[in-house]
Amino acid sequence: MTRPLRFLIAESELPEQRDRRRASVGRSSGETYADVLRAIAPDARCDRIHPAEGEAPADGLAGYDAVFLAGSPLHVYHDTPPVRRMVAFMRAVFESGTPAFGSCAGLQVAAAATGGTVRGNAGSQEAGFARRIVPTDAGLAHPLLRGRPPVFDAPAIHGDEVDRLPPGATLLAGNSVTAVQAAEIRHGDGVFWGVQYHPELPLDEIAGALRRQADDLVEQGWAADRAAVERYAAMVDALHAEPESHDLARHLGLDREVTDPSRRQRELRNFIADLVRPVRAGRGRG
How far, in Å, CA of 253 to CA of 249, rounded? Predict the structure, then answer.
């Protein structure tokens, strides 16, 4: 009998950040990942750990079919103990050869662990949605972005970005705000697919993130005041409740690449179908 897939979800949120996120949307970043992964792969068992706090998987990495790095407020360019622990964990993932996927800070951690660099956003803040993401020539042929149109939007909220990809990396997509929106990183025996946006986030969690970061967004000029942030977040919440509302989608400038969960989660679905399951079969797991 084939055993279930085993997924390891690495959260880099610190306890107070997890508490704030749960108070806002009811879930930590890792809990959101687990819900989405179980929906995509009902045969999966999901474990969560907190490497930034020094946690390690009890049975090591070799027993997992994939590792997922969730987003967080972590600033990878700050030399702090949590950052050093996350980077060390990511290096161990590469050494293990276990396929890995990361969104937002997850991509930044993978880049930093393999010789790339991360910085604060050089352009304007991407909050709510990353607009007009365009695959590179390599991205058009890469299975991570299979099924994406030539230009698409995606849920996103981030203050940092990958400045320089490491050796062995392939740029797969970018836009006018953030040059590195998707990439593949190969290092040692490991393969990592990552995106700067958030295919795992439902729209109500994007609304919650906007509210949590309202003061920063006003300070950065993204919105005139907190009331403006709230009005936008309320529209995103309403679209979450009524994803078929063409009126709400039109007001927000969104299409089914964002409103349809199966399309929004395309990169996660492609990662599991094209990298995780074939690698597992090749290793003879089960």
Answer: 6
198 in catalytic set: yes
Q: What is the pLDDT, as a whole number, of residue 59?
A: 83
Closest CA to 187 of 166, 163, 207: 166
pLDDT at 207 over 80: yes
Residue 23, beta-bridge partner list: none
Look at residue 4 and give its three-state secondary structure: coil
Three-state DSSP class for residue 154: strand
> Helix-strand-coil percent breakdown of the chain, rounded to 5?
45, 20, 35
Report the distance separating Cα 180 and Cα 223, nearest Å: 24
Q: Give the confidence band of 285 by pLDDT, cuts at 50, 70, 90.
A: very low
Is 104 considered catalytic here?
A: yes
Distance from C-alpha of 284 to C-alpha of 147, rounded to nearest angstrom? 29
Q: Are 172 and 182 in contact (CB under 8 A)?
A: yes
Catalytic residue, from 11, 104, 184, 187: name it: 104
Helices (H), the chain: 15-25, 29-40, 81-96, 105-113, 137-141, 203-212, 214-219, 226-241, 246-252, 256-259, 261-264, 266-271, 277-283
- Reported as a pLDDT band with limits 50, 70 and 90, residue 3 is confident
Could you say which of 161, 198, 205, 267 is catalytic? 198
Q: Is the pLDDT of residue 60 over 80?
A: yes
